[in-house]
Amino acid sequence: MTRSRLFFNTSIIRQNLRQHGWIGILYTLVLLFVLPLQLFINGDRLEEPVAMDNLFGLGIDIGVILIIFPIGAGLFLFRYLQSKRSSDLMHSLPLRRAHLLASHAASGLLLLLPPVWITAAVTSLVRPLHGNMYIFQGAEIWEWCLTLSLLTLFLFVFTVFVGICTGQTILQGILIIILLLLPAGLLQFVNIHLGRYLYGYPDWSGLYDVQTKWAPILRVVDLPVAPLSLTEKWGYAIFSALFLAGSFLLYRVRHSEQAGQALAFTYFNPLFKAGVMLCTMLLASTYFGSLKRQPGWIIGSVIAGGLIGYIVVEMILRKTWHIMTRRLVLEFAVYGVLMALLIYIPVSGLTGYENRVPQNDKVAEVFAGGNYRELTENQVGDTTRKEMEDEVFSADRKYIEAVTALHHAVVTAKPDQKNGPWSEYPRSRNFTLVYRLESGRKLMRTYNVPIAGFEPELKAVMEHEEYKRDRYLLTRMNENIESFRLNNRNKTVVISDPQEVLEFTGLLKREILNKSFEDEISDQREKASIQIVYKPDSSRFQQNSYTYNWNPSYKEMTAWMEQKGYADKLRVTAKEVVSAEMFKDIHHSAIPSRQLYNAHTRLQLARDEKRSVVITDKALLEDVMLHQRKFTSQEGRYVVMIEYKSGNTDFVSLDEQEMTPALKALLP
Amino acid sequence: MIEIRGVSKIFLEDKAVDNISLTVHKGAIYGLLGSNGAGKTTLLKTLAGIYRPDAGSVKISGEAVLESPEVKRRLIFMPDSPYFFTQATIRSMAAFYRSIYPGWSQKRYEELVTVFRLDARRKLSRFSKGMQRQAAFLLALSCKPDVLIMDEPIDGLDPVMRRQIKNLLFQEVAERELTVLISSHNLREIEDLCDHVGIMHEGRMLVEKDLDDLKADTHKIQVAFRDARHAAALEAKLQILHQEQRGSVSLYIVKGDRERISQAFHVYDPYVFDLLPLTLEEIFIYEMGDAGYDAQPIIL
């Protein structure tokens, strides 16, 4: 009598342990292999002890194990719900459902948690032993133990919850995996979908973070690089409690005769149907949309995707493939239209998303440029740079006006983002426009803006100091600079004299601030690239690997470089050229589109058509070196392949007006 | 003892049990008859507290069964095919039942193991179907329940075992007023076992009878009247379930007191008069024919 008053029924637990005890034993063995044993096996390869921040990166990826065991245990223990005969027996016993559930859940945790704790205990026992090549503290073991306990608990409880909602073990297993991945997958599809059809939609930069956070299966794989944060630990604990509570609540109203049915609660059916349809529709449109751009293909693929999803769900729910009825067609039509609207409305323009440009006076701060992400996003494990986000915004009214004007011009003309003749780099600029509005909201758009046709608007933005500050990371040109490293092909100059560093920093800043729009978009080839080396202890900017240029148009800098004698050291002359071959870059239509950007293919074409000529004359070579521009894929320019003595080959372009008559005369 | 009032159970769109009420008194053996799909199993599982009824109430000794451990402790449900845990033996199942059912009698269990001559240490999965059924029966009786619900229990048992189980049941009923509910699709299988019978068809209860009453109450009469008008006069006086004419001989199935019927016929001094007892099977065929059902496929 006393036994039944307890919340757990020991008979059930004993029976479960007798029947499924192997899960616990196997889990213990696997965990012992993954952690304590690896300390010694894996450590053999190391020559000296290695310090570890966390114990997840010891060679064997714990992700799969962590997914298989808790979910497997949940499937086995709650099999009693899904098989008719065992369900009848269990529900005829003199036990309340709450007792049944509590006892089975307790059995599962008894199978799953002691292995984790035993492994942690063994690890702390063997840690000081000779042969352990890893250095870590007791805290790391605690961390490991807590993380594994929480994730094991969460995955097991989630399996139980899904088990209560379904009536088939196989479907339960499949659904668990799908649901654990669904947030990530759905967000990915939605992101791709919006990115493809919504004009100006910025790729969601924080997507990966969000995905891993909300998709435990992905999160588990990430453990070696990113241990669970405190918030996440609480999150898993809270969600475990919620799913457990949900299981108890739903189990009370669950009909035991649902054993064998797909879903135990028929009111989940519409949600299930709609969810699967939405996923298959988005999946199909994502897949076919990336291969075929015609609207017919895309609409067709969405319909086909929806149909397949609907048929699959119907088959699962009715447990037969003979599902064809007249009602089915009607129901499919209803679901199809609803889902299609759900997919279509956000990208339809009905929401006003595409044309929305904030009014100047509503904008508090603005950012414009192509490097928003690099400026504001953290690398995995790096927490130092996030604070920069505030620094990249500008409250300058003139600048805000210039940006909104550009934004207006773009959404009015709506240049094709991907297929325009100008779409590749030198003829367009990628812009992310981010507004912080007075209302506190943030508005963000991304456009690929062609230069042609938008010159005045682009000029107003790109010549502005605020733009340049972000574009060229001017705030990072500060007193922490130790030296500059200048490179031109295989030549290097280091400016490290503190006085010169100071002067050069000033010069570079000035030149950049004075740089005109025309310079900004020109394809002039730099005289040298400039890299900044920071002082060793200036931690915040040590990561700055941005490369600046010494452009021919930087008159002041050029004069300084000449005066200091650095210019000569960086100059590459005709003497260093082994050979040069020139051709007029035409007949692009003869090149397969996949190879269009391959300069060698173009040269080969020119050679085949006998349009190329080898330049041997040193004076002519000097001409080429002087006028060389960056190689671009634009048709109709002159291209020279230069081979240097150092062994490098380089393609450069020459403009029509810069071709000397002598050079022109060479060509056939 | 068992009171079922207005119980309905719906699976998806199908009404498996449709507004059924029945009462089983303590110490009775109630037979639930019906063809496959009549709703017997559903009714029994609802009674055992496995299914939640969509309407109506199921009570044992005045207490609702569903989610009530106190009631379920005195109740055992034996499904049509016995279920044991994987790898279980009679011994390990006994240990499980012993820890769950407070009424468990180890003495009874040991007695029964010798009666059935089953190997308690052998894996139940290696037992034949009939042996598994015996094992389930053994375990059920060892729990000393007050109510035993058995779904198609006779299926797959040899006549000797059937006899034995029947005797055990009678013994339990006699000694400690065990209440038994048995379902079957075959009347002949349980007619010598039950004292009450209910017939289910398409979820509804067609007839419910006390068998002893029935047998005493319904009679088959073969008669040849001297005058055809006698027949018409007689039919007005008696409760006639069925009538057939075979040449000059009439066949009547009549309900009522044997003596009274006999007297009624003798008034007309027929050429032939035979009053015969009916088999249960015949009674049901006539009763249900009267209610508009063809009994043959329902219970036989």
Characterization of this structure:
In chain A, about 55% of the residues lie in helices and about 10% in strands. Chain A is an alpha+beta fold. The longest helix of chain A is centred in the first third of the chain and has 30 residues. The radius of gyration of chain A is 33 Å and the shape is globular. The N and C termini of chain A lie far apart (about 105 Å). The model of chain A has no long low-confidence stretch (mean pLDDT about 85). By secondary structure, chain B is of the alpha/beta class. Chain B has 2 domains: about 200 residues, P-loop containing nucleotide triphosphate hydrolases (Rossmann fold, 3-Layer(aba) Sandwich), CATH 3.40.50; about 90 residues, Alpha-Beta Plaits, CATH 3.30.70.120. The longest helix of chain B is centred in the middle third of the chain and has 18 residues. The model of chain B has no long low-confidence stretch (mean pLDDT about 85). Chains A and B meet through helix 2 and helix 6 of A and helix 2, strand 6 and helix 3 of B.
Q: Provide the succession of SSEs of chain B.
A: EEEHEEHEHHHEHEHEEHEHEEHEHH
Which pair has the most extensive contact? A-B, 27 and 29 residues
The profile of the biggest β sheet of chain A is: 5 strands, antiparallel
For the largest beta sheet of chain A, what order do the strands appear in spatially? 11-10-13-14-12
How many structural domains can be distinguished in the coordinates of chain B? 2
| pLDDT averaged residue by residue of chain B | 87
Low-confidence stretches of chain A are: none
Number of strands of chain A: 14
By DSSP, the count of extended strands of chain B is 14
Give the distance, in angstroms, between the N- and C-terminal Cα atoms of chain A. Answer: 106 Å
**Strand content bin of chain B:** 25-35%
Shape of chain A: globular
Name the shape of chain B in a single word. elongated
The helix/strand class of chain A is alpha+beta
Q: What is the assembly state of the chains in this entry?
A: heterodimer
Q: How many helices of chain B does DSSP assign?
A: 12
Class of the largest domain in chain B in CATH?
A: Alpha Beta
Which architecture of the largest domain in chain B does the CATH hierarchy give at level 2?
3-Layer(aba) Sandwich
The total of helices of chain A stands at: 26
* Helix proportion of chain B: 25-40%
Organism (chain B): Paenibacillus tritici
Protein name (chain B): ABC transporter ATP-binding protein
InterPro entries (chain B): AAA+_ATPase, ABC_transporter-like_ATP-bd, ABC_Transporter_VariousFunc, P-loop_NTPase
Domain ABC transporter (chain B): 2-227
